[in-house]
Amino acid sequence: MDTIIGKLDEQKQEALNKAAQIIKNGGIVAFPTETVYGLGANGLDENACKKIFDVKNRKRDNPLILHVTNQEMVEELTSEITDDQKKLMDNLWPGPLTIIFKKSDKVNDVVSCGGDTVAIRNPSNEIARFLINNSKCPIAAPSANISGRPSPTNAQDVYNDMKGKIEMILDGGNSNIGIESTVVDLTEKPYTILRPGFFIKEDLEEYLDEVVYDKSLVDQNVIPKSPGQKYKHYAPKTKLVVILGDMNNIKNFVENLEIDTKEIGFILSEETAKTVDYENIKIISKRNDYLTFAHNIFSYLREMDKFNYKLLVCEGVKEEKMGISIMNRLKKSCANNIEQI
Ligand code: TXA
Ligand code: MG
């Protein structure tokens, strides 16, 4: 059998080299990952990391994820690696999982926001991996949106938020998954999911005895353990209402809004869309196809936001499987403006 070596074409190689050079020089490059686009800087360079906070307008108490490509890098950045941390790294990396570790002295206070832990992720996206390897450093990267806006899942959405503010955007097409990584704290028991994503509790429990969701994910009155989760998030500028329940009632619900339906943008499942004839509908996925729903949601919210509708109406999903992670994002996007219909 012939073994084929997949070579990156020349133009792509050139862009990637340039990007790595910018990172080495202390600049910022937005790059694709399998979850969402990241806003990357040299994670060991405090000043470069500070710039990330400035361009995003990010609160200073919200720590950054360091992106790596191998276990040696994790060893450098942590003071200990437990058996359970190793188990998740071995089984679920590279991929959409961020693990919290006890940090080493190598992790600066800008990244950790003064805490004694560090969030680390090993992404699977080929461009992200190349960038990390060629920059020869862990890359600190939050999602590449202005704080509070939906995370960008394509280069154009990054450009809309970041033009003129950062040196470069690497265009890797649409993010595969579309919502941010699962964040799990393994520094103390019970192991806690701070942010659900592609992986939910049951996926992690294949490898760990017990995992719980952070209380704030189930009770809105509890302050989240993860700093980033306490802020209003992922929000379009247009007012958004998320509808749940029996979609046979959608016409009644919309009538009662007393807004001309031409002035409403709808994001609906294929099944619901078939039952109505509103003007501005984007079909997001089949009702139970959570993978496609997650893939599209942030880009659709951004797209619908451009039309200055009076209201956006988005059909929600069941809080089961990856629907848990989708509803986590939607609740923040609509500031808990959820209607049971
Ligand atoms: O998929 C993702 O995770 C994307 C891509 C670019 O990798 N990144 C991302 O970063 O979503 P960001 O900064 O938007 O969200 C990181 C979340 C925040 O809620 C932050 O508070 C939390 O992780 N976090 C970071 N370091 C932490 C730590 N040491 N302890 C607890 N939470 C932490
Ligand atoms: Mg973010």
β-strand number: 15
What is the CATH topology classification name of the largest domain? DHBP synthase
Average residue-wise pLDDT: 95
Q: Total helix count?
A: 13
Bound molecules: threonylcarbamoyladenylate, magnesium ion
CATH class of the largest domain: Alpha Beta
Largest sheet: 10 strands, mixed
Shape: globular
Number of domains: 2
Structural topology:
Elements: H1 10-24, E1 29-31, E2 38-42, H2 46-56, E3 65-67, H3 71-77, H4 83-92, E4 97-102, H5 109-112, E5 117-121, H6 126-135, E6 139-140, H7 155-162, E7 168-169, E8 182-185, E9 191-195, H8 201-204, E10 211-213, H9 215-218, E11 240-244, H10 250-257, E12 264-268, H11 270-273, E13 281-283, H12 290-305, E14 311-315, H13 323-333, E15 338-340
Parallel strand pairs: 1-7, 3-5, 4-8, 9-10, 11-14, 11-15, 12-13, 12-14
Antiparallel strand pairs: 1-2, 2-6, 3-6, 4-5, 8-9
Helix pairs in contact: 1-6
The protein binds threonylcarbamoyladenylate and magnesium ion.
